[in-house]
């Protein structure tokens, strides 16, 4: 599991060490210089003679960068520090000067523009403008330098120091131009922005430098690895029977979208549910594709409600509404998707998991008085998923290139397992089915532990994303292909 801590937690953990005189900046700079040296060996074959440009901001982030630059200069690199602020870290600057680094001021826009060529000609650029003390996007001459990097057709390798400058460290937003990093060398602990969209897209590969911080408190954002998914997956014991493994009620599809019923049922079956009971008008299509499905109502442990339920299909909407009422009355977990998102009561427990994409989340929030559109959600996925959790009480899985899950008691996950090929019609229906299988298989646990539904939702997204890759590595997939690959992915995880 990859865990991240927000800026306040990192600062709190640094405090006692700094008070005890532990040289944290030295450790950070040493780790940074070591990673940059690796990068230089990759791009130039060696450190000696390589040209390194430091973009230096006003705070300790600039200080780390200057100290790392001094270490690289002592190893023979040609280091140029571009000072984007009249006030920079004094010790760092002295160290760089002592190591014979070159220092050039860029205290106004014109000076910054004149230095763009120098920046773009470097082998490696260290982005040390802002770290965890940044507020909003990079301003001033630093913004011109970041803009030049963003606009360049061919740019040097960029190493972000701690975080790409200008991202929202805790919420994963990005304001204004952000330098796209190839590597982010982060200090003490991973930060939320390095996992959350859209900021994480600018981070490249993330390397954590251990500073010896004691981060005992709850992490801000987590990302499940394969072993975590395996630990969450309901694996049958030798004496399990189909009812013990979980029966899932699926209220999906409509005359207009019968395929969603097939895909959601298929996702659940492939994820290893004990039985699917299908409720709705697409029974013949579901049976044709999956003869193992039982059509009609009956006892279930959990539900998938909503994929492909058309807004004008009154009969299917009535069944979806009934299923939700039943699920809530009997403490049965439910994945609520697409056409059922507007059927929710005001408040639901966290074992109700909503699975909107950005557009659907915007509609849901707007219906509850927060006027937002799809672009707002995409610009701040965590904040909007959190808002939906607060307004409804549900666990919220917000789909996207990186899927963000917000559950009870501050549980937050960001899963980035999927290739972009997964953005294909019907993929969301398969995900709802996979999640339904997990909720059915662990129904009692999901009701007892309010944070578990979020972990199960993240696990479903992880398997769904991996299945998209496994179905056809590097190439296009259909939603049916993704479902077909789920059993292999699950087998690979639970037997690893
Ligand atoms: N406390 C320590 O000794 C350690 C700090 N570390 C480094 O210190 C960094 C945090 O340092 P700071 O707290 O000094 O903060 P930063 O270096 O992130 O920058 C804060 C400064 O930037 C200015 N600023 C904020 N937002 C701005 C914007 N949008 N545009 C332009 N200027 C802006 C502020 O006025 C302030 O002067 C970490 O990210 C990490 O790199 C590491 O060296 C580990 C140890
Ligand atoms: N750029 C992307 N990269 C990877 N996965 C993506 C990307 N865009 C969307 N996805 C995933 O594809 C699926 C699409 O689901 P959804 O939008 O509900 O489509 P549908 O309603 O057609 O099933 C979701 O699981 C989502 O997380
Ligand atoms: K930075």
From TrEMBL:
Cofactor: how bound: Binds 1 potassium ion per subunit.
Cofactor: K(+); Mg(2+)
Binding, K(+): 61, 127, 165
Pfam families: Carb_kinase, YjeF_N
Residue ranges of domain YjeF C-terminal in the record: 225-493
Cited InterPro entries: Carbohydrate_kinase_pred_CS, CARKD, Nnr, Ribokinase-like, YjeF_N_dom, YjeF_N_dom_sf
Protein origin, superkingdom: Bacteria
Key words of the record: ATP-binding, Isomerase, Lyase, Metal-binding, Multifunctional enzyme, NAD, NADP, Nucleotide-binding, Potassium
Record EC number: 4.2.1.136, 5.1.99.6
Annotated residues for binding of AMP: 399-403, 428
Catalyzed chemical reaction(s): (6S)-NADHX + ADP = AMP + phosphate + NADH + H(+); (6S)-NADPHX + ADP = AMP + phosphate + NADPH + H(+); (6R)-NADPHX = (6S)-NADPHX; (6R)-NADHX = (6S)-NADHX
Residues the record lists as binding (6S)-NADPHX: 60-64, 131-137, 162, 260, 308, 357, 429
Domain YjeF N-terminal: 2-219
Similarity comment text for this entry: Belongs to the NnrE/AIBP family.
Record text on subunit structure and interactions: Homotetramer.
Role according to the record: Bifunctional enzyme that catalyzes the epimerization of the S- and R-forms of NAD(P)HX and the dehydration of the S-form of NAD(P)HX at the expense of ADP, which is converted to AMP. This allows the repair of both epimers of NAD(P)HX, a damaged form of NAD(P)H that is a result of enzymatic or heat-dependent hydration.
NCBIfam families associated with the record: yjeF_nterm (TIGR00197)
Name this protein carries in UniProt: Bifunctional NAD(P)H-hydrate repair enzyme
Naturally occurring in which organism (per UniProt): Cellulomonas iranensis
Lineage of producing organism: Bacteria, Bacillati, Actinomycetota, Actinomycetes, Micrococcales
